[in-house]
Each structure stands twice: as structure tokens, then as C-alpha cells.
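Bench notes, bay 3.
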Amino acid sequence: MSRTERGFKYEGLGNDFVVLDRRVSGLDISPSASRSLCDRRRGVGADGVLVLLPSRSAGARMVVHNADGSIAEMCGNGLRCVAKHLLDREPGKDALEVETGAGVLPARARRAGGEVVEVEIELGPARLDAPHLPRGTGGGPFVAAAIPGVDWPGTAVSMGNPHLVLLGAPPEVVREHGPRLEHLPGFPDRTNVEAVSRAAEGLRVSVWERGSGLTDACGTGAVASVAAALVAGWVPPDVFVPVELPGGRLTVRVSADLQRTTLRGPARFVFAAELPEALLD
């Protein structure tokens, strides 16, 4: 008899994931399994696979597998989905910590009818200086720097994973230039790319995700965008700024010194299914 495994589909503003709870076995998946599961014609279809493994320092360890089989350090929408998955199974609990490639991060839930509908997560500092970011002129942070082939300045921000934020750029820029800018020199691990413009109450952001392409939403991308906008004087510190993405709205708070960032947004269960062995190898 073929081996099967129960998988869970979640989405946060259309950024969708397959969650595999492997805290008992402790076994991660291969790059080929991630590609198979994420395939929208021959698999489940997702922007990524989130594997839950045991952790000595938190309720679980989340490993983020992109649709192309690569591994990301962090995923804000994914972390909200994981928090929902775990907390929906503990009705009396509304907070937990999850170990990620960007450290152990706390999450708090808001429930409606007993079900988790919104999750707030603390993502730690937004860094302008990190090993996987390029350097600016004179060796300083890469802030409002000229980017070859586009008309908008770029700011490099690390949320545990790398981001290139193009302030003032219209949404179509990420579709046209995202594949090239993902591999921009100076980003040794490639980069996510955000096109950011002002909206009535905050920001409008479109994202090219490293390893996944265009997505409806990106949590860390929303936070990186607010951090870059704060540095540029577009938004105030220490208040929740609405961020409009193709999939809907997130709200982000960044401290004046960039050391504290908070992301708030929905997470939704889509379905559960028995996944065949052919998709897991």
C-alpha cells in the first residue's frame, strides 16, 4: 500500500501554503517534494510548503520551502498560517512562539467563534546592514540607491530574509523586472523585490518573491516596505500602517530605530487532504 500523509492548505491574503506537521517524525522534505506539492497543475498548488519540526526552544520549528525547492529564512504570511494551525488545536491558548530561520518569534491570535481569524506576529528588527544585503556608496547601508534598468531608487532591508524595496515604483515593475532583480549583484542569496507607492492611508505594495515569483501578498515584504518608507520619511514610526497588497490588507508597525516590527493580518484554513507518496518524494 502506498504511503500517504495528511497535509493542510492555508492562505493569508491569497499567499497560499501546504502545511506538513512533522513534529513527531522530525523529517524535513526534499526540494523535489516541495516542487511537486506546489505545482498548480500536477500537485496541490501553493506558493510554498511549511514543514513543522520539533523545537527545543518553541512550540514548533517552521521550515519554509519555496515553490522552486529553495529554502527561505522566514515568511510572515506563512508564520501566521502556522500559528493558526497550531492554536486552532489548543482552544484555550491564544499565544505561542515558533522557531524560524530568523529566530524564535512570538505570535498572538484573535478568535471569532472560537476559531483563529487574525494573527499578530513580532518579526524582530528590520536591518539595513546584514551579510546577505549589498553595501551602498562608501560602504554604508544600501538606501535610496540607483538600480540598473529601473527609474526608482532601491533600499535593501533584511527581515531575516533579503528584500529590495523600490519606493515610488508602480506595481507592474515587479512583473517586468522582478525576475532580473531577484538576482541583482550584491544579494548573494537572491532577493525579494517590492514595488511601493503611497496609498490614501498608507502604502500599496506588489511583490516578486524569491523562489516563488509574483504572489498576492508577502508578510515580510510588507514589513520591509514600511521600514524603507519610514527611513525615507513616508510613514511615521510606532503606529500601525495599512499596507494594501493584491490579496488584501495587512497592517505593520515599525519602531523609530527599526528594532521592533509587528505584522498583523488574517490567516485562513482552506482544506485538509491525504497526500499521496508520489508528491512527497
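Next record in the batch:
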Amino acid sequence: MTQRIIVVGGGIIGMLTARELHQAGRRVTLIERQQTGRESTWAGGGIISPLFPWRYLDSITELAGWSQAHYAQICEQLLHDTGVDPEYTQSGMLMVANDELDTARAWAARHSRHLEFIDAATFRQLEPQAAHPPETGMWMPEVAQVRNPCIAASLLADLQRRGIEIVTDTPVESLLCERDACRGVATARGAFEAEQVIVCAGAWSGQLLGDLPTPPAVRPVRGQMILFRTPPGTISRIVLEEQRYIIPRRDGHVLFGSSMEEAGFDNSTTPEMYQELRDIVIERFPVLADYSIVKHWSGLRPGSPAGVPYIARHPQIGNLFVNAGQYRNGVVLGPASARLMADLVLQREPIVDPAPYAWTAARG
């Protein structure tokens, strides 16, 4: 019988990893602490690009580039196979960072990325509702987005269609590790055993692996967001400025976020952040003052040093792996992270050099 692989965590990273392994012919059990896709996957913005991508290490650019090259095909296949539309949309991304123009130009040249420098008139033409278009803005027309709850639902439907075993509402309490091997996981529903275990538990990954040698430095970082309901087309483009982004959805919903708060595992929302986000977005996009906020939520991102994920085999426990720590870039890094994880588990030629993501690699 085909050996079993347990994937711990049912966010976008865990579901894509399970999908990759199943496509390679492996028998996979996915175990999720609540329902799939309900943590940072559901809570995020869905931009298929790192925010201000030149601010990240080249290791992030490598993974993001692979994902960006494959995302449209992945979403097309998911829609075809499941009937659930991830809402892949090429919105383009405008950026305001007046003191980083030279850095951005050098990054784009080094990595052959399409980045345009535009004047205020062009910025306003691309996003007419922006109140303060910069004298020189930046524009990446090829940047796309997905709608987080939609791609989560599509991936779940795809895993179900494939017959992958999905165990929900079942927190993993501990890993069953003895000496140099991990034979499975312990839960309140009993033990689940497997020949290989992959921890894709997002912000909870560091906690789950904390008792093992060289635990990964993955921690929760809270992000709060607000959502407006407007007529479709009210806001046209993704716009980034000072770590905050606005994202228009196809149906007219407009998302604005997000905060970055060291609040441990507290994922509650606060009235102070609600007001801060509302004030900032209306100052930048006054048209939104005419529309209501229909939702305010928070999520816990899996923070890591320099935002570089751990995609690796444990240095001492040969059948234990981790795929976590994508921080603010879980959606854009998801497909590449999953493919690289599968390459390492299956001992295939990796899509990128795995060294920067190793369990004990220097980060930052």
C-alpha cells in the first residue's frame, strides 16, 4: 500500500501541499484544528505579489516569481474541476513609496520584473478615486489577486474530489517523535500514524514544533481589516501605501488593511484599529465615506525572520517536515511553497534552490 503522509494544517499552504502530494500519487491525510481555510488564509488580502516586493530578500522573489507564473493556470484548473471560482483577477498594483524609487528600479532590473514609473496624471487615470496621487508612482500592471474565501473553498472542493482524507475540528496536540523519527500525531480523537509528517500549521507551527530541537521561529502576528460594500468599479486597482493596501473585488466589495500587531494568539478585533483603518482609507479614498463598512475582522499571520518561510526537512528527524512562516505572503508564495515542499519530500529536483528555506538557514 502507498505510504501515508500527514499534512498538519488546512490553510492555503496545507491544502496546496496536500494537492501536490496527491498529484504525485501519494496517500495524504490532512488534519485541521478547525475548518479548512478559516485562519490567515480566509483573513488575508489575496494579492499575488509581495507588498513592495523590493523590500524582501531574493529568496522571497524566487518563490513569488514561480507562483506568479503558474497562478492563472492553477485557478483555471480549480474552476474547471470544482466549479468554484477563485476569482483570479489581474487588477494591477499601484504603489506609493517616494523614497524607494531607485531601490525599486534596481530590483526590477535585477529580476526582470515589469515595473513602470508613472506621473500623477497617469496614477489618477488608473485609479480616479485616489485623493493624493504622488508626483511619481509605481505601477505593476501584471499583478493579480484572488479572493481568499473563494480560493479556500475551491481548494477544499478539489481535495474532496480527489478523495483526500480531511479531518477537521481536530487540533494536533503533539507530534509522536521518538529519537530520529516521527511516527504521527496525537489528537483528542486519538493518534494518526504515517510514514511522513508535514507541519503546515501557520502561526501555530512554532508552538507545535517548540519542544523539538531547533524549533522554527514562527510566531503569530495579528492583522485587522475592514470591508466596504460599493458598486462594482468604485475602486479599480490595488493600491499600496505605507504598509496598507486597498483591494477591489469583482462584486464591488473593497477591502482595506491591515494592521501588524504582536498580540500573541489573540485574534480579536479592536475599536481603535477599526477607527484607524477607516480614517486612513477615507482620507486616501474619500468616495468610501459614502459607503458602509460591512465587516471588520482579524487574522493571525505566521511571522518569521525577514518573512522567509521554513520549507524543509527537520535536521535530526528525517521524516518530519515544515512548510510555514510565509508571513504576509502566504497566498502569493503558496503554490511555490507547496511544490518545493513536495520536491523535498519526494526527493525530486527542486524548483528553486531550497537552501534559503532550510530549517537552520540564516534569515535576514
